Amino acid sequence: AVTVVWLRRDLRMRDHPALTEAAHAGDTVLPLFVLDPQLIDVATPRRDHLLASLRALDDAMDGRLVVRRGRPEEVVAAVAEEVGAEGVHVSAETTPYGRRRDERVRQRLERDGRSLVATGTPYAVGPGTLTKPDGTAYQVFTPFSKAWRTHGWPGPAPMPRGLRWARADSEGIPDGPEVDGAGEESARRRWKRWLDDHLGGYDGERDRPDLDSTSRMSAPLKYGELHPRTLLADIAAHEGARSKGAKTYTDELCWREFYADVLWHHPESAWHDLKPALSSMTYSRARKPLEAWQRGQTGFPMVDAGMRQLLAEGWMHNRVRMITASFLVKDLHIWWPEGARHFLAHLRDGDVASNNHGWQWVAGTGTDAAPYFRVFNPVTQGMKFDPDGDYVRRWVPELRHLAGRAAHEPWAHDEGYAHGYPERIVDHKAEREEALRRYEAARRG
Ligand code: FAD
């Protein structure tokens, strides 16, 4: 018998429970990827990475990956029919769009007498698995992370033995540029190098965008080139397993799982405030400041460096994501979904759970204890986390003539604006007061 494995956020060969399951259920396995117009025609950096990852996967599958374009319920049903498969195997999808889509596909397959078999998820602990003792969902990270560690996860899934591919026509993978680091093998090499070089020091270095020493695993995790279970097993087996770095890194992976869990329980929180407390908040709809922020032309060096890194690389350091997001929400008074949309359009790792809840964390409308009245100062944050100004000079050429931390304060130097860097578009102190005034008014209702 033939089984189909329909791949989505699991573009890898190793540690792939759905593939292992498909191989056990059939003599041959047909690997299918559907180019869903809803997902493929959106953001360029994500599409480029996806296509590069598909090319790598196709190589690993001896050129047998079948790629078809169309609505998933039609394509999956048609392919299953063509090859006579009874079962279509997937890793369960947990985002609001993915869950609705999979339900449509399941119904369609069942109408034809076939089944959709879900094994595993893109997470170590599947979203929706953990609940508080009273049966409700966690809303706060720390208790969730305790429950997550206590629950634990299985070790990596074994490679299926004697895996043989079935054949079907493929439309082929659309052309796209080479993408550095895309694909399971590249991600794996980067990961192993990072483990040896940086795991132990992660705790001390992770907040420093100038050092660029975080793992850059967000895109591999997004496409499932590596599974978090693999990363956790590698950490446990590493000589630095007991270091503070290993503990902190595991917590970061847990943040990813936490946000996926929150989204699973509250699908509407993808684009609406999770907590209604600030629903009467007034926001600005001004286009000009929004565009200045998007282009990295706000006149605040740390904000502009981050926004330009995003446009250039499709990635931004976590600390700078927080600084730039805070600036949009608290200095420009723009509602967080505007920023979340821009990030998703440009991030290679763009992920609705981590991104939109990361934004809500900054805005004070989401989970957890980030107090709404904490307003980041973009200048002191810059000096603290980019102490020598290296990160700013890397991304803002108009400030390269300023040595050391002077790059964070062009206004304090005679030649500060000599190379065309823009003046500040707002007065941070005044906007901070304005933000606090708005938050107070919203809280009073
Ligand atoms: P590392 O520091 O090496 O962390 C390891 C892994 O832990 C990351 O790959 C990621 O999977 C996870 N992780 C780390 N920090 C967080 C966090 N705060 N929340 C959730 N997971 C985390 N991450 C995304 O993957 N996609 C997004 O679209 C995204 N948008 C964000 C938007 C905002 C406003 C903020 C504040 C954060 C966002 N993050 C997002 C989280 C974080 O910034 C990135 O995961 C991280 O910068 C990726 O770089 P890295 O892999 O080198 O991180």
Automatic annotation (TrEMBL):
<dbReference type="GO" id="GO:0009416">
    <property type="term" value="P:response to light stimulus"/>
</dbReference>
<dbReference type="InterPro" id="IPR006050">
    <property type="entry name" value="DNA_photolyase_N"/>
</dbReference>
<dbReference type="InterPro" id="IPR036134">
    <property type="entry name" value="Crypto/Photolyase_FAD-like_sf"/>
</dbReference>
<feature type="domain" description="Photolyase/cryptochrome alpha/beta">
    <location>
        <begin position="1"/>
        <end position="124"/>
    </location>
</feature>
<feature type="binding site">
    <location>
        <begin position="349"/>
        <end position="351"/>
    </location>
    <ligand>
        <name>FAD</name>
    </ligand>
</feature>
<feature type="binding site">
    <location>
        <begin position="252"/>
        <end position="259"/>
    </location>
    <ligand>
        <name>FAD</name>
    </ligand>
</feature>
<dbReference type="InterPro" id="IPR014729">
    <property type="entry name" value="Rossmann-like_a/b/a_fold"/>
</dbReference>
<dbReference type="InterPro" id="IPR005101">
    <property type="entry name" value="Cryptochr/Photolyase_FAD-bd"/>
</dbReference>
<feature type="binding site">
    <location>
        <begin position="214"/>
        <end position="218"/>
    </location>
    <ligand>
        <name>FAD</name>
    </ligand>
</feature>
<keyword id="KW-0285">Flavoprotein</keyword>
<dbReference type="GO" id="GO:0003677">
    <property type="term" value="F:DNA binding"/>
</dbReference>
<keyword id="KW-0274">FAD</keyword>
<feature type="binding site">
    <location>
        <position position="249"/>
    </location>
    <ligand>
        <name>FAD</name>
    </ligand>
</feature>
<dbReference type="GO" id="GO:0006950">
    <property type="term" value="P:response to stress"/>
</dbReference>
<dbReference type="InterPro" id="IPR002081">
    <property type="entry name" value="Cryptochrome/DNA_photolyase_1"/>
</dbReference>
<keyword id="KW-0157">Chromophore</keyword>
<feature type="binding site">
    <location>
        <position position="202"/>
    </location>
    <ligand>
        <name>FAD</name>
    </ligand>
</feature>
<dbReference type="GO" id="GO:0003904">
    <property type="term" value="F:deoxyribodipyrimidine photo-lyase activity"/>
</dbReference>
<dbReference type="Pfam" id="PF00875">
    <property type="entry name" value="DNA_photolyase"/>
</dbReference>
<dbReference type="InterPro" id="IPR018394">
    <property type="entry name" value="DNA_photolyase_1_CS_C"/>
</dbReference>
<dbReference type="GO" id="GO:0071949">
    <property type="term" value="F:FAD binding"/>
</dbReference>
<keyword id="KW-0456">Lyase</keyword>
<dbReference type="InterPro" id="IPR036155">
    <property type="entry name" value="Crypto/Photolyase_N_sf"/>
</dbReference>
<protein>
    <submittedName>
        <fullName>Deoxyribodipyrimidine photo-lyase type I</fullName>
    </submittedName>
</protein>
<dbReference type="GO" id="GO:0006139">
    <property type="term" value="P:nucleobase-containing compound metabolic process"/>
</dbReference>
<dbReference type="Pfam" id="PF03441">
    <property type="entry name" value="FAD_binding_7"/>
</dbReference>
<comment type="similarity">
    <text>Belongs to the DNA photolyase family.</text>
</comment>
